Automatic annotation (TrEMBL):
Pfam families: ATP_bind_1. Small GTPase required for proper localization of RNA polymerase II and III (RNAPII and RNAPIII). May act at an RNAP assembly step prior to nuclear import. Residues 42-70 are annotated as: Disordered. Signal peptide: none annotated. The lineage of its organism: Eukaryota, Sar, Stramenopiles, Ochrophyta, Bacillariophyta. This is GPN-loop GTPase 2.
Length: 415
């Protein structure tokens, strides 16, 4: 039986676990049998410490309850958790005296070496071995985020290739980038673009790159900047006067990733200096001071800055030469945003052409309800499956408000 799924990667803190939780809930609302496979050995519950007043029997009972309930730290419902069934990072670090990065690499290589056992457990719990007509499960693989696993090692790619081969799995690589961190900082976004391009080639899977945590951009935009007296200003006059976004360009530029060289002029700018309310009158006078401008000019003419700019210029060339990169904005708490990402993923793995068999096995009332959900979802795919310019403008206004972008920096005027 053909299975479908997503393998979720991204830097630590980019929201992979939250994404898997929200995506599982959304897919189940669509009538899909969505399950999460936790392949992150660091997603584990710390071992409980023995306290006074707890005897051996009570500790044993608590351990049995924890084993029955599974990993209580994970927000989603798992069908397989490597921390419980295979290996955990904490045990490796304690027994082999390895650091977190080295221990995680050891854990992933251990999982690859024992992948046959992992596949056996998956097949048993999915009912694939004994029942060829088992329900079609939709699998979400939550992976660790250390860059060493994709940049310096092919272990994740080999695990994904074997999963595809032995489970007949139509897999899509979903790569998350923290929008709240990378979009305001030009150098971080260029680095994230390079990492995404490298991972797309090393994974050898259809890839969907996602700008996660879009809802947090409003916290650094002019729309949510508080005045000194603690109040928030929502008037249009504030936007017109000093409502600037920390992003140098609009959202469409960062989703399409065309001509990244335009970011080079903003390498030495401080994003927080251009947020409404973050710069006082004294700061503005200081920034306009001729001596300060001369010091900035000397910095721009220094050997370090020239090499720094040249390095990022070559990185932009590398990303542009491949031309593989594009992003989808996502707020996991916004159902419409999640639906558009799901539509793109279903196009990549072919699920868009599949009729869910679970709908045919339900009762008449439930079947009618789920069919309505399926019809709505199919209509959304056909009618509005791409993030067009109008949709991006709506998303930008929703999360950033009526802000202006840093296309003009006062420091650049004195170059």
């Amino acid at each position: 039986m053909v299975l479908y799924g997503q393998i979720v990667i991204g830097a630590p803190g980019s929201g992979k676990t939250t994404y898997c939780d929200g995506m599982q809930q959304y897919l189940r609302l669509l009538g899909r049998d969505a399950w999460v496979v936790n392949l992150d050995p660091a997603n584990e519950v710390p071992p409980a410490r023995n306290e006074e007043g707890h005897d051996a029997e009570s500790n044993t009972n608590e351990q049995q309850v924890e084993e029955e309930e599974g990993n209580a730290q994970l927000p989603y419902e798992t069908i397989l958790d490597v921390c419980q069934d295979i290996i955990s990072l904490d045990s490796v670090m304690n027994q082999l005296h390895l650091g977190p990065n080295g221990g995680l690499l050891y854990c992933m290589e251990y999982i690859e070496h024992h992948l046959g056992h992992v596949l056996k457990l998956l097949k048993e719990r999915l009912g694939i071995e004994n029942d060829k007509h088992a329900s079609r499960a939709y699998l979400l693989f939550d992976l660790p985020g250390q860059i060493e696993l994709t940049a310096h090692s092919a272990v994740v790619g080999r695990i994904a290739a074997r999963l595809v081969r032995e489970l007949d799995l139509r897999l899509v690589c979903v790569q998350l980038v923290d929008a709240a961190i990378c979009l305001p900082d030009v150098s971080k976004f260029i680095g994230a673009s390079l990492v995404c391009t490298s991972s797309m080639m090393r994974m050898e899977l259809p890839c969907v790159n996602v700008l996660s945590k879009m809802d947090l951009l409003g916290g650094i935009g002019a729309n949510n900047i508080k005045q000194k007296d603690g109040s928030e200003s929502d008037s249009d006059d504030d936007f017109a006067s000093d409502g600037h976004s920390p992003m140098p360009f609009n959202l469409e530029f960062f989703t399409q990733c065309y001509d990244l060289h335009r970011l080079l002029d903003y390498l030495d700018s401080n994003p927080m200096d251009f947020i409404s309310g973050a710069v006082t009158d004294e700061d503005k006078e200081y920034m306009d001071d001729p001596e300060y401008q001369k010091a900035r000019q000397r910095t721009r003419n220094s050997n370090f800055y020239r090499k720094y700019r040249k390095l990022h210029h070559e990185l932009c060339d590398l990303v542009d030469d491949f031309g593989l990169l594009s992003f989808l904005p996502l707020s996991i708490q916004d159902a419409e945003s999640v639906g558009r990402v799901v539509a793109r993923i279903d196009k990549c793995n072919g699920y868009v052409f599949v009729k869910d068999q679970n709908l045919q096995q339900s009762t008449a009332g439930v079947e009618r309800k789920e069919n309505n959900l399926q019809d709505l979802f199919s209509s959304a795919i056909v009618a509005d499956s791409e993030w067009g310019t109008g949709v991006l403008s709506d998303v930008q206004e929703k999360y950033l408000g009526a802000t202006m972008f840093r296309e003009e920096i006062s420091e650049l005027k004195h170059r």
